[in-house]
Amino acid sequence: MRQFALSLALILTSGWASAFEAEDVARFGPPDSDRELRIISTADIAFFKPMISSFLASESGTAIEYTVVSSSELQKAIVDEDEAFDVVISSAMDLQTKLANDGWAQSFTSEATGGLPDWAVWNDMLFAFTQEPAAIVVSKSGFGDIPLPESRNDLINLLRQHPEVFRGRVGTYDVRQSGLGYLFATQDTRASEIYWRLTEVMGGLDAQLYCCSSDMIDAVKSGDLLIAYNVLGSYAINREDRDEFAIILPSDFTTVMLRTALIPSNAPSSELAALFMDHLMTLSHGTDAQPLTHPALDLSQNEASLNRIRIGPGLLVFLDQLKKRAFLSEWESAILQK
User: Fold this and answer.
1) How far is CA 16 from CA 12, 26, 82, 272, in A?
2) What's this model's pTM, rounded to 2 decimal places?
3) Is pLDDT larger for residue 239 or for residue 4?
């Protein structure tokens, strides 16, 4: 009996250990509601709260459970653990495309989704509701009289001219851990070879590596970093302390991520999920659109320099295991320089 109990404990412990890890969980709406929408998302609660609040205002009696995870943990929850969520939201467009392509999303059409621009929908399964640029975030006070960079070439020259100032104080994504960071990095290499030169220069100055945009911005605020590269501009511009930062959209090209949503194939409340998707698309693309990003990040003025990442099977190229291993090996050589 004791042996059986020990074996059972090991099995249960093993199951707990393999469960996906949530960074944050919040509940909105009536605490005792039996009409609940479960959302799993890579977006911070503060970033997405306005959309949740506006939906609940139109759907009284509904509750929303909002779970924040990393992009890799999102994949684990949906694919490995078959968790029952109603809506899946992520900034990692390639991983979202893979979910839809591999049969983890259900088809959905409505009046709201029928009028979307071509770049905002793929196969009636994956829907984009924001356009968010990758930005260079700089500490205004930390730069002093040093001129701000306007392009990647400017940034390279700046780092080479002032190594004593920037050593250990430049940050970017750890693309081994961050799905969005990996997406941005691979798209940068498609746009220009300058990415590898910049990565080598940052690596030579002991670049600090981070999981997510919010941590990089916090590090710039605290003074641990002076520069954060490929940060989500939407996260920086929506902060109350945004005046402390210079948010630079590189003039050579600005990579633009589309945050996407899908309804998973096993959604327990698919009808409620459809209502939420309608709301999301209407607010994002309708005649009275209310973008989640700040108007100061209006991209229409920079259309010529935009490198807008397109949803579709082209995003799956760098998810091929051989290509991914080769990319990460080259990235580690450039950024770690061991």
Assistant:
1) 6, 21, 15, 30
2) 0.81
3) 239
